[in-house]
Write a structure and sequence with these properties.
- There is one protein chain.
- The protein is of the alpha+beta class.
- Helix content is 36%, strand content 18%.
- The chain has three helices and five strands.
- Strand 4 and strand 5 form a beta hairpin.
- The termini are far apart.
- The mean pLDDT is 88.
């Protein structure tokens, strides 16, 4: 009789299967590391936001107060203008060129009595787009200050409407809207200086300030006069 053959030795796993399992384990470790890293990053960013949120808000408020203060003399009010911010209804916002956008009015008081307003307005017809303004007006209708807070006018040409570029904007101080014809650039028969070849920007600003004065006169009761 033929002797039985010895049992075959167990076959080792195929190398390809071992490599696949190792690759899956490595991928799992990498995914876990990425998950931990993303979680830690999110936590750190969230913590940084919480820590800096109040500081950022305080800085923004300080910048806004500084702009508001440029439109009214300090002796004219003793309250916190920023705290009086009133969001105007859409109808009134549209009258100030802020159609479809938030528009605020700030009430200045002195010894508890209304002394002035600061109004957010927009000139939609600047040479390069909208020109956003703050206009300070005393309770008797006299302009106390105007500041351009945002624009895209041509540098070196129309940007002289900025207080930091020239003193052109100071022409509004002390004026009242009594003689409509005077509220135009001299080229158009008005009383406002303008640089030759750069009258579109000042025309737009003058028109926006006029709208503020007309608005305050027409809406006197609703704005607290």
């Amino acid at each position: 009789m033929t002797a039985p053959l010895p049992p075959s030795p167990p076959q080792s796993p195929q190398p390809s299967a071992s490599l696949a399992r190792a690759a899956w384990r490595q991928a799992g470790r990498s995914a876990l590391i990425l998950l931990v890293f993303a979680t830690l990053t999110t936590l750190l960013l969230g913590g940084a936001h919480l820590l800096t949120r109040d500081t950022i808000a305080a800085n923004q408020a300080a910048q806004r107060r500084a702009l508001l203060a440029q439109t009214l003399p300090p002796a004219l009010y003793d309250n916190d203008l920023l705290a009086t911010a009133t969001l105007l209804p859409p109808r009134q916002a549209a009258q100030l060129g802020n159609e479809g956008e938030d528009s605020h009015l700030y009430r200045a008081t002195l010894h508890g009595k209304l002394s002035a307003w600061v109004v957010e307005a927009t000139a939609p017809n600047g040479y390069a787009g909208k020109i956003r303004l703050l206009v300070g007006v005393r309770a008797d209708g006299v302009v106390m200050g105007v500041r351009v807070v945002q624009h895209r006018e041509t540098p070196g040409l129309g940007d002289y409407i900025e207080a930091g570029k020239s003193d052109w904007i100071s022409q509004f101080v002390g004026r009242r809207y009594d003689t409509p014809a005077a509220w135009a650039v001299k080229k158009d028969g008005g009383q406002f200086d303008a640089r030759a070849g750069a009258t579109v920007s000042p025309r737009a600003v003058i028109g926006a300030v006029v709208r503020v004065l007309v608005f305050l006169r027409a809406e006197a009761e609703s704005v607290g006069l």
